[in-house]
Amino acid sequence: RSLGWMSDTATPLLERAAAAPPTIILDCDPGHDDAIAIVVAARHTNLLGIATVAGNAPLDRTTRNAIIVRDMLGIDVPVHSGAERPLVAEPKHAGHIHGESGLDGADLPEPSGPADGIDAVGYIIETCRSTEGVWLVPVGPLTNIALALRSAPDLARRVAGISLMGGGSFGNRTAVAEFNIWADPEAAAAVFAYGGPLVMSGLDLTHQFQATPERIESIRVLPGRLAATFADLFVFFSRTYVGRHDSLRGAPVHDPCAVLALSHPRLFGLREAHVTVETAGVHTRGMTVIDNRRLLERSAPNCTITESVDADAGFEIITESIAHFSR
Question: What percent of the chain stands above pLDDT 90?
Fold first, then answer.
């Protein structure tokens, strides 16, 4: 199913990515919605590896969580831990949303072992140099990606593009700043200025993609332990959101949108715009400034923005992905 339209310039870019399963490195900070992004990526992309970054929880916990999810899926994908703090700012986490572990709400197994490497930036650089057509899919703070681009400027020309979750026209950590951008604005500014194909799935989009009670139940009734575990995770995640918002029926499941934009682009309505990141404002630090002017001299687009989604069809893909691995 499709919303039936995509911007003329975005259509070829994303349909080429989805012509075959896109080849990606998922950079994440698990996090409940990051865990779902891993499941969808494992099912519907050529997932080369998982890089972790501090964000929703400190690095040791996000790395542990990525390994646990990898193990539960039974996939042979390396996990490399990366930046434990932002480029400039002090570390900030989101225990009030994800719990102190980063994945509160379910009885999770112990990880099978340590991370496969502790230099995610080096892993990203080496993999993108040795493999053609890699999409970077960061769904946490953008520290690892910014460090890789700074350390290896040739990456800007070598990667197929970057599809990120972050930003939007409103915020969740301040009135205008979304967590992933707010956590490391300097890194985000570097990524938005890198010059290659860029897809942004921000809060305007992800708040349309909620884990409602009905959608959680559709996962709970699936056979297998994995489905029950993810249903429990969704319940915890949704409670923290619903209790803190005026009108949500479930948690916005942010991070899979950055994967689905590549694997299932026809789910989305898209548009092109110029987006920059505010790094200095007293009240606006971490804001993604989207140029919506109608002036002819407006800045040239540097970003494809996902702004609407067929949420029912998207959750069917999430449910099918969980069912595929649940046993």
Answer: 89
Q: Note if the pTM is more than 0.90.
A: yes
pLDDT the model gives residue 243: 84
Alpha helices, DSSP H, located in the chain: 10-18, 32-44, 59-73, 95-98, 120-130, 143-151, 155-158, 179-183, 185-192, 203-206, 213-220, 225-242, 256-263, 311-325
What DSSP string runs through 172-231? SSSSSB-HHHHH-HHHHHHHHTS-S-EEEE-HHHHTTSEE-HHHHHHHHTSSSHHHHHHH
The rounded distance, in Å, linking the Cα atoms of 31 and 201 is 17
Any long-range contacts for 153-160 (C-beta under 8 Å, 24+ apart)?
A: 154/129, 155/124, 155/125, 155/128, 155/129, 156/194, 156/195, 156/196, 157/196, 158/128, 158/129, 158/132, 158/134, 159/128, 159/134, 159/135, 159/196, 160/17, 160/22, 160/23, 160/133, 160/134, 160/135, 160/197
Residue 7 has pLDDT above 70, yes or no: no
Given the residues 80, 254, 264, 283, select the one marked as catalytic. 254
pLDDT digits (tens, 9 = 90+) for 210-248: 999 999 999 999 999 999 999 999 999 999 998 888 889
pLDDT, tens digit (0-9, with 9 covering 90-100), for 17-30: 677 899 999 999 99
Kindly report the number of other CB atoms within 10 A of residue 317's CB atom. 18
> Is position 254 annotated as part of the catalytic site?
yes
